[in-house]
Each structure stands twice: as structure tokens, then as C-alpha cells.
Design goal:
elongated, 44% helix, endoplasmic reticulum (chains A, B), Thioredoxin-like_sf (chains A, B), homodimer, secreted (chains A, B), 160 residues, AGR/TXD (chains A, B)
Chain lengths: 160, 160
């Protein structure tokens, strides 16, 4: 009995070690998916890379800038991203009327965090370079936070 | 004769107008290719999006940062990009040893333009956040410019 158990154990060890090796080889060979600037917020939209670039485009195209702060591993960011990316109307409005920037890191400009640093948070900047701290969502404690159900408010704001 | 010419002209007008319409429809339907963070400098590499993000990664991973300033419509940038992206060894060295950032817009940090603003230009930053103005290419007038043939110098610098 002990002999049988021992051989089963040995076979298991060999199988697991082979599986481990195969997996390692696969991981090493696996090609990385190129990172996109949209990060899932709309592949068909044109995104600025940095705040400086976004300000340049806002000024030169005379369009307001929309800055979305988010994090990959934040469920609230993910939910808002899904709603934003899947809403065709909001994608169209964003594409036609705004310079767009999404960031997973804060900038050095304190004007972009009027009531602190949190995600998701959306700030608008005028083509004249003024951060529009007066454009807020519907939460008094985190003024620039939006939820998926706020997309309609957002649409209204975008068109205002 | 005039009648024949007139009908040929009319047919031509109709054909051109139909072709025009088809072309317009195609342009409108055409999907945009999602912008990548690599912008052609190596899709398999991991790129930081902004200087702030790159500095954060350099500090937390204790790796030096390589900042490439370039422009899409600059032939010198294009040539350097091609050499950089196609050189497997340099891609491997860059991937394993550096935090990487490529920018088509200047940052607000003057330390990144020690001898002025031009492209292509490569600057290195220590994990301690010091811009290494001492790491230069082989041109005395534009110290941080590199040409495709300098890739070997670059390799040496990357390994130093």
C-alpha cells in the first residue's frame, strides 16, 4: 500500500514539475499586448498622452479639455470606464467636442485636485487654461467623482 | 456629335459623383487604429505614459529612466525609432534595465533640456531623480542627439 502511494506521489511530482516548466515557457514566449493610450476608455477616441500635450491641443484647437483620473485596479474606475466606453453618444460627444486625457498618475498641477486626490475623478479645463472647479458631479464630499449612472449628468455637462 | 459628347459628359459626372459618395462613406466608416504608448519604439516594451509616472517607477523599481523626445513627422526621429525598434539586443536591454518614456511634447522640467529643445534627443535620469546631463551622444552642438548609427554607443551607455 505504501509503495503504491509513494509511486502515485512520485508520478504527481513529475507531472506538476513538467506542467510548471511548460507554463514558464509559455509565459516567457507570450507576446505582450501593446499598451494603448485609451486604456479602455474608447479606442476610437483621440487621446493626449500628457497634461502638457493636452493643454497644447486645448489651446490650439480651442476645445475644452476633459481629464479623467482613474486606476486599473479600482472597481469604481472600471465601472465608470465601461459605461463611458460603451455609450456611443458620449463617445461621439467626447470625440467631437473635447480634447481628452486619461491619467493613472497625478500631475504636478494642484489645480487638478481641488478637493483632494481620489479616483475616479473628472476635471474640465477651458481652452483658456482655466481649471473649471465649478463643474462638479453630484457628490458633496468628492465633488469630481462620477458613477456609471451619472453618465447622463456627464452628457449634459459635456453639452453645456 | 454634340449629343454624344454631352451624354459622355453626363455619364462621367454621374460616375464621379457616385465615386465621391463611396469614398466619403468609406472615410466615415473607417476605424481608427488605437494609439499605442510605444508609438513605434517597441510594442513589446513597457512604456510609462507621463514624466511623473516614469519618475515614480524609476524610484520604486530602482531603475534608471530613459526619456526619448521625438516627433512623428521628423525624419531623424523616424530613422532612430526604426533602428531602436528593430534592434533586438537594444530592445532586450531597454526592457530589462530601464524605465522607458517617449514623448512628443516637452515637459515643464527644464532639466530635461540642458542644451535646448530639439528632437530626437535622449536623456537619462537616475533612480535618485537626478537628470544625468553627463550622459551624452557624440555631437558637441546637440549633446543628447543620437543617430541610427549611434545605436552601438547607446548600447554601451545603457550597459554602463
Amino acid at each position: 500500500m505504501l509503495k503504491v502511494l509513494l509511486s502515485i506521489f512520485l508520478v504527481l511530482v513529475v507531472v506538476i514539475s513538467i506542467m510548471g516548466r511548460t507554463q514558464k515557457a509559455t509565459v516567457k514566449k507570450e507576446k505582450r499586448v501593446p499598451q494603448t493610450l485609451s486604456k479602455g476608455w474608447g479606442d476610437q477616441l483621440i487621446w493626449a498622452q500628457t497634461y502638457e500635450e493636452a493643454l497644447f491641443w486645448a489651446r490650439s484647437k480651442n476645445k475644452p479639455l476633459m481629464v479623467i483620473f482613474h486606476l486599473d485596479d479600482c472597481p469604481h474606475s472600471q465601472a465608470l470606464k465601461k459605461a463611458f466606453a460603451e455609450d456611443e453618444k458620449i463617445q461621439k460627444i467626447a470625440d467631437e467636442n473635447f480634447i481628452l486625457l486619461n491619467l493613472v498618475h497625478e500631475t504636478t498641477d494642484k489645480h487638478l485636485s481641488p478637493d483632494g486626490i481620489y479616483v475616479p475623478r473628472i476635471l474640465f479645463v477651458d481652452p483658456s487654461m482655466t481649471v473649471r472647479a465649478d463643474i462638479t458631479g453630484r457628490y458633496s464630499n468628492r465633488k469630481y467623482a462620477y458613477e456609471p449612472s451619472d453618465i447622463k449628468i456627464c452628457k449634459f455637462k459635456l453639452l453645456a
